[in-house]
TrEMBL record:
May play a role in early endosome fusion upstream of RAB5, hence regulating receptor trafficking and fluid-phase transport. Enhances cellular sensitivity to TNF-induced apoptosis. Keywords: Endoplasmic reticulum, Endosome, Membrane, Metal-binding, Protein transport, Transport, Zinc, Zinc-finger. PROSITE patterns: PH_DOMAIN, ZF_FYVE. Residues 35-131 form the PH domain. The lineage of its organism: Eukaryota, Metazoa, Ecdysozoa, Arthropoda, Hexapoda. GO terms for biological process: endosome organization; endosome to lysosome transport; protein transport. GO terms for molecular function: phosphatidylinositol binding; zinc ion binding. One of its GO terms (cellular component) is endoplasmic reticulum. This is Pleckstrin homology domain-containing family F member 2. It holds the Pfam family FYVE. Residues 152-212 form the FYVE-type domain. Residues 236-248 have a biased composition (Acidic residues). It is found in: Early endosome membrane; Endoplasmic reticulum. Signal peptide: none annotated.
Amino acid sequence: MVDKLVNSEANARRIQMVENCFGTSGQPLFLPGRVLVGEGVLTKMCRKRPKARQFFLFNDILVYGNIVIGKKKYNKQHLIPLEEVQLQALEDNGQYRNGWLIRTATKSFAVYAATQTEKQEWMAHINKCIEDLLRKSGKKPVETHAAVWVPDSEATICMHCKKTQFTMINRRHHCRNCGAVVCGPCSSKKFILPGQSNKPLRVCLDCYDNLTSMKRDGNKALAGNNNKPANSTESSGEDDSGDDEETLKDDNVTHDEHVSKNIAVNGFTTPQSCWINWMGFRVENVSSSTNDTFVHFICTFYVFHYIYNIANAAIIVQNIVWIK
């Protein structure tokens, strides 16, 4: 079915509609051979809480973004090449149901569908597109993927030292290598993770020690191979060009949160649900004698923010659509 739609006017029109929904903030999506397979709303597990995101599945990329106006406008477009994607089903856990992991070399995250049927259809369609793409290109699946970040709400204390309690002053940080939530002192080191960035990224102390040890062992192996005769048939391996100099500046990188919009492609429709897991707000270690006004302002802001988002989430009603 996908091959039949490659050069069709209907496919070009649908892709143009998606581009129009993103406007000038998005990248051009039309390419020769690209087909819009389906689209729908999924709940993406972001750093602070789950958020509804619009996803578009093409035969070579996965696009998602923030919903500004339902079925009309989206922003923060994010494109993921399917040849880098690996899916992993998740077991249901309380309110987190019908989920799976989307893993890539640069970023990995969890998404949740409204029903078990939608989960199965999303995973089946994505895996089919990946298989077709790899078969046509002759490439092998990517084996190294970025860690999935632990949500802030699931860690009240540092996951490394097990002592530091997170407050307004003691901020949460994420290890870019393992995804754990750690405190500042337990993530004071940085290391170059080639799959994610050319610059040193914040890692926890355990990961830093492990990565440093692996690099040291790799350098020793490389030095040993360099001392062998030139006619040796053994591979020398590639040296890690990372810089060991560490800095304490906070890179404060967060998960990208991007969105896309739905377009009617066929007649298949299933219900979609949108929910938000709100975190409790706590004010600790604040002197009541000097900061009452500040605390009152912060609490008032969060109350209004909560009401606004609940009202906004209530009006989001989307459908998932696949091409038949």
